[in-house]
Amino acid sequence: METTKVGIVLSGGGIRGIAHLGVLKAFINAGITFSHISGTSAGSIAGAFYAAGIDPEEGLKIFIKAKLLRFIRPAVGSLGLINIENTANLLKEYFPDDQIENLKIPLTIAATNFSEGRLVYFTKGPLIRAILASSCIPGIFRPIMIDNQMYVDGGVLNNFPVEPLLNNCDFIIGSSCNHLKPIQKITNITSLIARAGVMSVNKDVEQKAAFCNILIEPKGMGEISTFDTKKAEIIYWLAYEETLRTINNNPILTGLINR
């Protein structure tokens, strides 16, 4: 019997991307594994950990204890763009091989070529540089240079890169970490801009959810600030529990267990 190829797409979302680690851990505990992964920004980081064989719960500990959270959080009062490349040495500890094609599971990382204004999918070459490019939020981090071209966050053009999975997988699971709850009022301009930004990237998810057999989207995650690092564990466990509920209530997913 031919094995079902199951792919998972992981959205961008700043610190909310830790939700993907909870999602992946729940699937691991249920006995569901993935043959392909595609991710943008924080989703590319979570995907890289999984593809490298790093347990998602260990990935959470790395974020918290190894100061990877500083990588996502901008420096308070900084007048200039932050150099995201300072994180490269830290990532080398976890990705010593540093080649996308040598990961245990095929990984696609979405990034935006800012020089040419086009979307790029990295499936081979330096892993860490691709992760940094995909996570390089414009206006906060300096663009990453690759082959004399500027690269920024993949979410600018594709915050939910399901496309690379379409011809490679029989079954596709989506993980989105930006769900917004309805609100009655806005109290400040920062909240207004942040909500508008999340609504913009969510439009991408709405349109592409049709390509997913299952979409995991923990409720209210979009209200958490992109840089609210204190919520890391809460985000992880909310996503873990949401995924377990989805698995238990979906006979299709149950059929994928230990296939």
What characteristics describe this protein?
259 residues; alpha/beta; eight-stranded mixed beta sheet; 9 helices; 8 strands; 36% helix; globular
Explain what this protein looks like in three dimensions.
The protein is an alpha/beta fold. The protein is 36% helix and 15% strand. The chain has helices at 18-30, 42-51, 56-65, 69-72, 88-92, 127-134, 189-208, 232-248, 251-256; strands spanning 6-10, 36-40, 107-113, 118-122, 144-146, 149-153, 171-175, 214-216. Strands 1, 2, 3, 4, 5, 6, 7 and 8 form an eight-stranded mixed sheet that branches. Strand 5 and strand 6 (149-153) form a beta hairpin. Helix 1 packs parallel to helix 2 (42-51). The radius of gyration is 17 Å and the shape is globular. The model has no long low-confidence stretch (mean pLDDT 86).
* Rg on CA atoms, Å: 17 Å
Number of strands: 8
Helix content: 25-40%
Tally of contiguous helical segments: 9
Give the N-terminus to C-terminus distance in angstroms. 10 Å
Order of helices and strands: EHEHHHHEEHEEEHEHH
Mean pLDDT: 86
Principal-axes shape call? globular
Percentage of residues in strands? 5-15%
Uncertain segments of ≥5 residues (pLDDT<50)?
none
Query: From the helix content, strand content and strand pairing, which structural class follows?
Result: alpha/beta
Main sheet makeup: 8 strands, mixed
